[in-house]
Amino acid sequence: MAKRLFGVYLLVELAVLVALVSTIGFGWTVLAVLATFAVGLAVAGSQIARHIRRLQAALNARSSSGELATDSALVALGAVLVVIPGLASSVLGALLLMPPTRRIARPVAVAAIGKRLAGATPLVMTYSAGYAGYRAPGRTDYVDGEVIDVVDTEPTSVEQRTPTAD
Fold this sequence. Notes:
The protein is mostly helical.
């Protein structure tokens, strides 16, 4: 899966670069890539600092907000996308760093992550010595026995009532 995702990333970035070079030229494309990287880093730095302050305020107030956690995850993803080389990833990362687009992306991210976690998380039950009914691993019981396979030879009541046409 990671190889496919990386392959898609390479194809998208390459297609964007080729289209940009053929449209505006090589020099302007290099300048555009560097500009989006620099602007993305500046926005990422300010948004990360802002979210660290928001997280500290939430911890001091002892309140937890799902919206704050989702926003922080989207800011972190945006910062990573800005740092990854490439024009398309930098633009997508910069969009995730802007509060209006995060407001749009938040429900999509919650739905995607929730669906993925619901399908991937198995029901796990653990027992420890503190719970009632816990039996420490040790010697197991062994029952010596024989299995006999039984086949009924008498027809059931339904088969007796069904007449056969000969």
